[in-house]
Amino acid sequence: MSINKIAQQFLAGQIPQSDAETKVYDQSVLEHEGTKLIMIRQGLNRLLLVIGNGSLYDELEGESFEGYKLCPTNHHNRLVLNRCFPHTAPQAFGKQVATFGLGDRLGLASPGHIKTIRGRDVKPILAQQSIRELNLTGRDYREVLDAACYAVIQEGYTGGFGADGDHLKLEEDIQMSLDLGFTMLTLDCSDHIRNDVDNMNEQELAAAYEELPEKVRRRYEEKFLNQSFQVGEYAFTYDKHSLMKNVLIYSKAIDYMLYIYERYIKNAERAVDFEISIDETMTPTAPEAHYLVAKELQDNQVDIFSMAPRFCGEFQKGIDYIGDLEQFERELAMHAAIADHFGYKLSIHSGSDKFSVFPIIARYTKGRFHVKTAGTNWLEAVRTVAKVNPDLYRRMHQYALDHFEEAKAYYHVTTDLSKIKPLSEVSDAELPQYMDEDNARQLIHITYGILLQAKDENGNSLFKDEFYQTLIAQEEAYEASLASHIGRHLELLGK
Ligand SMILES: [Zn+2]
């Protein structure tokens, strides 16, 4: 039996050799008070080979053999390992170091992400999922965090990583993510931000403003009305019109931020990187709106890690920035100055593939940023499948085309299906090139939930199982795709 041979090598003090049946992750060796372990994979199944004695040996659950134990990479064992090896648990990073959100959508990308980020001046947020992504992938926060921690063990990575409860809106989700040990929390305030204000005429604006409690109006008027605030070379002033507008749009959201901070972040009894997201709104965040929100937070002693405004132009999923680069640069300079002034980091969401704006972000944030990418590791997974399993790719591509309209309900994209080359005209060798074309990228990007959930008439998964099997069996190919694609992001960001 292959495993026995491998165990004997490990018992003899060697790093075992992979063979046809068993892959050995040779960087994964860990030692703690007489217990030694290494991660191996048999087929699709990752296991821990554990030898020695001591409390760790006993605490890990698994099957015992002569002189060794084989333990599943499950939730229980992850928690045990986190306790013995603190670097395998997520951590908060504070505001002085650049961070990069990687959001491993499938639970397979983190080893490649770690290989990409290693040695660079930026810390990875390996676990980062929104509730919407969980619903569409059928995963939960426990699994998401388990996958990230085991990836860290597999790669022998000791540089530290974070876990982001991304775009959380509800208190129950905030509580759940904190209970599970998430170290970053992105509060999505969009339900408390008014989207109807920009379309109001002067009269409607004044009338809506009068409806606000007098206490609220007075609080903002005393502080901001006809006042000017200097931030570096920029001055932000609020006349009656602009103040009414900003208070109408943001005051409820600000109250929600204060409440969540008081109730959850301050009471967490550990460091939590608290991000405020005001990006999921209809209109871009004007720099003076960003300033007003930030000033209110500071005056109420709310200590934030980062703020994500909505920038001008479009940050669509999986493709480069669309919009006026000069305007973007002008406004980004102001947003970055505001973040700097208050001491937190500017956060850029939907950062996948925004190659044309990365150098601008690097310059104005002076390299102190948080950038989130999400679905791009899914697209690299699909690219890998296109390379190594063309038949599966073809079936997925066709299914995505057939279900594109359903997926569009969730995402704002400008995909033109007529520009995607028909499958019948593309050879197997050319299939990966679909992932270099914006329309095909967006098609595949937004249909991930539909593809992963697709079932045949007997209730069996149409693609998911084969997709996972392919990627696990071809993990080096997937890692290479990620290293090249995510690496390009980091290089343009100056990291
Ligand atoms: Zn966002």
Automatic annotation (TrEMBL):
It catalyses: keto-D-tagaturonate = keto-D-fructuronate. Its cofactor is a divalent metal cation. InterPro entries: UxaE (IPR032586). It comes from the Bacteria. One of its GO terms (molecular function) is racemase and epimerase activity, acting on hydroxy acids and derivatives. Belongs to the UxaE family. Catalyzes the epimerization of D-tagaturonate (D-TagA) to D-fructuronate (D-FruA). This is Tagaturonate/fructuronate epimerase. The gene is uxaE.
